[in-house]
Write a structure and sequence with these properties.
Blueprint (H helix, E strand, L loop, with lengths): L4 H16 L3 H5 L2 E9 L9 E4 L1 H14 E13 L2 E12 L5 E13 L2 E8 L2 H23 L1
Parallel strand pairs: 1-6
Antiparallel strand pairs: 1-2, 3-4, 4-5, 5-6
Length: 148
């Protein structure tokens, strides 16, 4: 059976609902084992980040949820030629500092066999880098003060 726009949207929305509930297994159940995740920011040097495989993707999600809570929803979705295009509205709140980043980003979603095979995210890179630098710096200061 060919994947249609309705089913593709349901799969994407299920991943965002699971993410918003902190359910990493719920997120990853909708991905192929050999998935590729690409983000235009988030790499060690602040550049692009690519993750290959469900195990590595699950670990990345776990690391994020250890320090932050997040909610994301699809505000726009189109599906053509096996590719989904979505605009995602979201927030992410750091658990320690309570700083919150609110915004939107784009996703390109490639499907295979009723699962997501490739997920590409395009964020405001400067905004993301500034947010993560700010909270990591403030969290380190708070940790040092608590240790005294």
């Amino acid at each position: 059976m060919q994947l249609d726009e309705c089913r593709a949207r349901v799969i994407l929305e299920a991943t965002h609902a699971a993410w918003s509930n902190g359910d990493i297994e719920g997120v990853t159940r909708h991905f192929c084992d050999d998935l590729t995740y690409f983000c235009n920011t988030g790499g060690p040097d602040g550049g692009p980040l690519t993750i290959t495989g469900k195990v590595a993707y699950r670990e990345t999600l776990r690391q994020i949820l250890e320090v932050a809570e997040s909610v994301s929803v699809s505000e726009y979705f189109r599906f053509q030629d096996g590719i989904g295009r979505a605009k995602i509205e979201c927030y992410i709140r750091h658990k320690t500092t309570r700083h919150t980043l609110v915004g939107s980003y784009r996703q390109l979603i490639t499907y295979r066999d009723d699962k997501i095979e490739r997920l590409e995210e395009f964020h405001d890179a400067a905004k993301m880098i500034a947010f993560w630098r700010m909270i990591s710096g403030e969290a380190a200061i708070e940790k040092a003060l608590l240790a005294e």
